[in-house]
Amino acid sequence: MTNKDLISKYDLQNQFQVLRDSYLQIQTAWEGKLESNNIDVSKIQNIIVAGMGGSAIGGELLPAFLGEELKFPFQVNRNYSLPNYINENTLFIASSYSGFTEETLSSLNEAIERNAQIVCVTTGGKLEEVAKFNKLPIFKLMKGFQPRFALYSSFFALLKILQELSLIGFQNSTTNKIITNLKEMSLEFTKETNEAEQFSRDLIGFIPIIYGVSGRTDSVAIRIKGQFNENSKLHAFYNNFAELNHNEIIGWESFNANQINAKVIIIEDESYHPQIQKRIAITKQLISKMGCEVKSFTSNKSEFKERLFDIIYFADWVTYYHAVQRGKDPIEIDNIHYLKENLQ
Q1: Annotated catalytic, 273?
Q2: Which one of the listed residues 31, 135, 192, 246 is annotated catalytic?
Q3: pTM over the 0.90 mark
Q4: Which of 21, 39, 212, 293 fits a disulfide with 221 by CB distance 3.0 to 4.6 angstroms?
């Protein structure tokens, strides 16, 4: 079957169009602003983003994206409760696309009790109700997406909030470049034959193992792993350099390609420390020697921030095509729905 046939048969809710139009999410988020901003910026000493799944990954990406521009201690909280240091000097951002994420709502209530500086990012739901009741600033997101497909909305909403609060410099130029890049890439990746769908076909029958670099692309590795899980309905695993060179590299000594079908994807970038570059080269040699193919995600854009979203967008298409090529609906998340129903 052609890609067009596979998409018609398995993509029942037209995620193809959602992915194609991802740049519009960025445009809309960048045009948005905080409703009723009452944040006392002078008090802020640290930042915490509370979220789960697709609503949390934007927070994970922020420190890598901003690098040394981010002057505050920053943490993503994926728990029902908060670290003890959270107080009136904390900028607490509650991020829940649906507005019903129970872990995020629980930690939000705790942040309110501790008098933190709070912003809520959502499309509505219970989170918006709590925000309005407590007169908290809200940044509204575009509706109509699965949270993981709304990353471009969620991430650039977070970025815009930090810019609006003058906690970082202006990101307008870079944001516009990323919008242009994604718009151009959408034309390429929607062709019948393209690099993303070919990359996906090379992974059929294999478990992806994604390697990033700590502080640079580790959050991207997390994102890609999750996209293989949710979009492709496939187990995937990730780790980071240089940490994996101190433990996981030994596991490759007993790798048997006849027993385990796996391929390694390394996120590569020119900005890595020279020793990291050497570690990647040596690790590639060791893995290849054991009979496992090593592939790469990379970008040739001039600015790291652009390259970061190049790779994310490319991987989104790879995992989308991997779903339909395996006869799966990329939007379906039945096990998550089952879990939520049984948690009530």
Answers
A1: no
A2: 246
A3: yes
A4: 212
